[in-house]
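### Sample
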Amino acid sequence: MDRYPGDYVLHNLPLLVISGLETGGDETEPITTGRTHAFLQEGGFRLKVDIPAVRGSLATQLLQSFRAQDASEVPWHHRSLAARNGKVFKIATVGRVYTLPPRKAPPPPYSPRLAAAVANGSPPPPLVLHSPLSPLTPGSPLYPDGIISSLWITKHQSRLPCALLTFFTLSSDPKTSSLADNKLKSEINSIRSVLSSTNYRTRLLLVLLGDNDIDPSEVEDRCNNIRRATGLDGKSISFLPHDSSPAEIEDFVGSVLSYLQPLCVEYYRDLSKHARRKRNRNIVPQPTVQPGTSSILSLQGWNVRYEFKLAVFAEFRQEMDAACRNYETAYETLFSPKVLDAIAVDSPRFNEAWLLADIIALRTIRCLLWTDQGTTAVKSWISHRERVKDLVNRKGIGTDNYGWEAWQSTWTRVMADLISRSGYPPLNVQNPENPGMLPVYARTSKPLAAGEAATPWEQLHHEGYWLDMSRICVSKRRKWALQIPEEDRQSPGHSSASMVAHKSRFYDTYLALEPYREFPNDGSAGYDHVKEIIETLNAAIVHFAKRGQLRKVEILELHKGLAHLSTGSWSAAVTTLQPLWKKHNWRRAGWWKLLQHLGWALLDCVPGTKNHTLLIQLLWELSTSVFEARPGVNYDLPVALKALSPEIAHPSVAIDADEAVSPLVPAFAFASPNVFVGEPLECQLSLVSRAQARLPPVHLTEVKIVFEGSLRPIHLVSGEGQSPEQIPGRAEFVDVSLQESLSSTAKRSSAGTIASMTGVADLTIPPLHTRIFRFRVIPREAGEISIASITLLIDDENFTLAVTSSNFEHSTPHWWEAKNGIPIPRLLGQELNAFNKIEVKPKPPRLQIEAPGLRRSYYTSESIQIDFNIINDEDEDTIASVEARMISQIEGAAQLGWVASDSASDVVSATPSDIGVLTLPARALGTLPVSSNSTISIIITDTAIAVDHEVEIVARYSLVSEPETVLTKTLTVDVGVIRPFEANYDFLPRLDPDPWPSFFDAPPPDAESASAQGLRHKYSVAASVCSFATEPVVIEAILLTATQIVGGALCSTGTGLVRNRTERTAGKDEAAISVEILPDRTEIFDFDLTVQKLTLGDRHTVGIDLALEIGWRRQDSDKVNTTLLEVPRLIAPMAEPRVLLTVTEAASFPSEFCARRLDFMMENPSMHFLTFNVSMEASEDFAFSGPKACALNLVPISRHALTYRILPNKKDQWIVVNLKVVDAYFGQTLKVLPGGEGVKVDKKGNVLVRV
């Protein structure tokens, strides 16, 4: 849009002029002088204030805040207006002197009023004065038939404000404040007087800034006084204290602009009403002076002028819909037969009308983009281009000239600039399908009218498309400019006037230069077309890149490089084109013609840049048969380098064959997908020439093959080698013998001192020829082997070229076979070698590992020793070492170690290598003779957790004859550790036959202080031990131990006895047991447990943590292992009363039934006197003697036995005995507990006695 006058194309904003703030410049001249014209200054209304401008930090902050609110750079879109709440202004700052444009032009120097009287003797009519910019004013540039000038928009946008905001200082000095206020009133009245004389409706606002602290009431009084003296209303005068904070200043600025916004809208609405009234008169106004024979502006021209003014005033009000309607009306009227068609094409007014048509179309498009009508905007742009094209073809010199292309490039650039300035949101939203990318075009958001359709091009595309169109037009402009005849390119000083006039009829200079300036022939600089093309391409590339259109970006880069090439800018052309050459997109797409065009363009740059590296890269690729041979180019690299520069510094060039097109294509293939270590493997290296047929052979110095895996590199060095068989055709086999190499060959080679395999062969490859090199390799280590890279090396005396191929994933290798003496390629299948990989399997080991003594299961707390036999079944002696590791599901579940000798105490411990993995250091076995064996042992300890372990034994060995080949034998065994026993426990109280201690008994004089003196309770513990072992085990001992006692007591336990043996050996003192327990069998062991308080007065409950220790062994072993089982805590309430029942045989009666004596021992261990109500319930199962019901009193720490005799009517059965004991005070019923053998309690709580 820079080809058009600035005020013509910019979006119109209400003009707010700020006067009186120190700007740091000349205060006597407005800052808009450079954008004004003499018509807008001469005869204008001068506003001058003698009071100096306000200075200080407050004035500076205010000025910055107002300038920050300037909306000149805000995007031209309705969302920007909404974001600022409609407060959009163009803010201009001036000093104390400002000139408003004149409203009327002065009378012409020759006035008709001074002429003679008319025929009837009456005086001439008075002069009608108009605006200096009106077509009716003789001094106007539009007089007499111009439509409108950009100066009219400049007048309203830069010189005539809708509001004048002037600042003054309100003095705080009481001595001079009155004088200062009077001076202020005088200046304000002077400003108001000038504004009143202009008849402009510019709004005046006064802002007073405090210079120090002033009382608020005083400020209010002084402001009211100034307001009354100057005739201002209350809202037109404001005061801002000197100590206002930045936030308060921002709020003040916002409030001022909010107040002005509706006033400014009303100001421009009044101007619209004035223009509408003139239009509605439908007459041509009377000019100041009749133009004589010249034509005047027609009525349709005046309507165009009025509609344009209405549209511009609507833009000032930000009413873009109304502005768009007025612009469209003005545009259609302009193209009517009585306006634009009526203007002669050689008249300057024709270009002015063409310019106005462009401006109206531009502003119409901006209004459409403002309201998100992208498709309609594109259609409007196309419509204007077609109407102008038709106009030029009808009235002008046509479109086959550089002037038309200049207009087209400008018009397309306008569209790109409008899209950029509007920040069109549909083109700047993130693409959800591809984050980070912007959309290519904006979809139609509003439905089209019935019968209206939008083609793909009519969708609004981003700026890059329009810039690319502009570049195409500039290129065409340059093409037409180069065709200008020599005589037309002479300057006017060297041509006659008639010749100059004749030339002007054949060239369109609207938005273009004259022929002698477009492309001069005197050597001077004309229009720089290439510069404009490159700048346009750079801008377009940015937009295409933002949207991921990489192919388009590459094409534009190519055009950019060709533009540099056309001007001889060799370095710039190489900088642009070389990155395109290095990319592989065009190669993958097969765009060989385009790539050839690019390569030839780079070849043209080589002589100018003397770039030897670039020359080598280009000639190597362009010699491929997919390209055509360029005439005049020598593809022989040594000859081409000498021709470019005889003295070169031996350049070294590296080419990636995977990213470039190579005339030599290497391929490698293995004969088999699987091979064992130490076995020879057939390999083929094929070099296929794809060079152009007429080129010389390629002489390689060396071919280097590098593998991933254990295979050493292979170097094929150029030499005579083995002469291949002369087989007709274009392919031949070459057998190569590889030799071990630790140093470089006699010739220059890249092998260096790296251990590799080297062979000598003829490496000269003619064009369109294939040479297959066959050789054998022997893998020495197991694993996967694949091709890492193949490098073709040319080491000439003038240069070095290395072409490397390393990507073989997408290549399809072939295996060449001889058929009738002719090499024929065979496509490999889906085997591993079809992907340039092989699997080298370890040589089958014959070393055996056995674990003869491995048990099916092991048990916790058991020390596990496993012996492994290493047996050498190889045909010769071996050198072996053994490694071991153990994998556990739980970390720290066990420990692993080597048994270094026959003594299990000499152990080498393992170290953790991973979570749950213990690894033993390698153990050397030395040399194992044939058929010999060696035994190693590991020991697993601290097996406290039942978990499965996995023990892995790895034997690594090598034959004495092949020390470099390492073989591996692995044995994995599962070691399951389980718990050998599980147990359930029953705690039964028992009656202690010994008497209780008494408070009245003195302790024995020999009693120790630590001995227990309190109450004692006895319990019988029954442990039901179940064997989880998978084999019979022998329990040698079983103990019940107390691990922790809480509550101040002592605990003693006895050795457990098997219950069935207890019955057989009743009355015997047996201290130890030895019993065999079968798998899944349960044995019951009885234990006696005694708990005694340390002190007699301690009544706290006793808690005892117990453990069951079981000493056991396997049947085939004498080693006793100890397993520890947890026992639930025993809670012994030592202060609770209880009732214990014991049963004995009574004196025999002459009956078949035996009488029983029941002793109910009632205990009161508390410190209270307790009374119990006792009652015995009768039963049908027995007769009893004893108290039916009684009351029993127990003193503290005492017990009493209540005896009954019963005679049952049953035998060898359990009968229920129900004795109720109730605490008389608390009302609680005491449960009867079994105090000895023959008594039990069932699940219902009933007490049963064995009879």
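Residues 52 and 96 are 7 Å apart (CA to CA). This sample (Trafficking protein particle complex subunit 11 domain-containing protein) is used throughout the tutorial notebook.
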